[in-house]
Amino acid sequence: MFFRMLKEDIDTVFDQDPAARSYFEVILTYSGLHAIWAHRIAHALYKRKFYFLARLISQVSRFFTGIEIHPGATIGRRFFIDHGMGVVIGLQTGAKVLGSITVGEGSKIGAGSVVLHDVPDFSTVVGIPGRVVVQNGKKVRRDLNHQDLPDPVADRFKSLEQQILELKAELEDRKERINQK
Predict the structure, then answer these.
(1) DSSP assignment of 29-86, as one string?
(2) Residue 32's closest CA among 106, 104, 84?
(3) DSSP one-letter string for 6-44
(4) Strands across the sheet with 138-139, in order?
(5) Handedness of CA 84, 88, 91, 96 (dihedral sign)
(6) Residue 59 and residue 66: Cα distance in Å, rounded?
(7) Phi, psi for 174 (deg, rounded to 5)
(8) Which long-range contacts link 129-135 to residues 24+ away (Cβ below 8 Å)?
(9) Number of Cβ within a 10 Å radius of residue 146
């Protein structure tokens, strides 16, 4: 299981980076891969309440890779960090970054957010879908009201319901025309 996960991490590099040429090169030179592997060890220790040892591994990894990942952060499979110098991943509980997305330098993603688009430099993103609320230290949106966030599923149901009503009306109209003939 462990070695299968390591191989999957390496295969993910080949899937995501067209510049990757050999297993030897990837294993020895990809700092994002090293940071992920160190994080997997630190996270396992963190979950077992070996907090100091987990933080120590995290900090040693940060020193060598330039990538800081809090040992309590949950990182799923097939995660790839390319050109990761200065990347910081904290305990952003439940945040999701979906797709091939660039999170800009110095940016933050709020807990529970779902990021669907690139995040500009020095921004804070919150919400579902994620929206930039602070950029370069200035508030971007003041009208973000979490209880009134859009619901794309409900919107689609309303649209489909409206189409069904229109189709029923058209069908009834055609039935009436046929019966009148």
Answers:
(1) H-HHHHHHHHHHHHHHHHHTT-HHHHHHHHHHHHHHHS-EE-TT----TT---SS-TT
(2) 84
(3) HHHHHHHHHHH-TT---HHHHHHH-HHHHHHHHHHHHHH
(4) 108-109, 123-126, 131-135, 138-139
(5) negative
(6) 10
(7) -65, -40
(8) none
(9) 9
- Please give the structure tokens belonging to residue 178: 């046929």
pLDDT tens by residue, 141-157: 656 566 666 777 888 99
- Supply the pLDDT for residue 13: 92
Q: Give the type of residue at 130.
A: G
Distance, in Å, from the CA atom of 85 to the CA atom of 181, rounded to the nearest integer, reads 77
Amino acid (1-letter code) at residue 118: D
Quickly count: other Cβ atoms within 10 Å of residue 159's Cβ: 10
pTM tops 0.70, yes or no: no
Residues, the chain: 181
Look up residue 10 and give its amino acid.
I
* Below-50 pLDDT ranges, the chain: none
Cβ neighbors of 86 (< 8 A, separation 6 or more) are: 66, 67, 105
Give the list of residues 6+ apart from residue 23 with CB closer than 8 angstroms, or none: 10
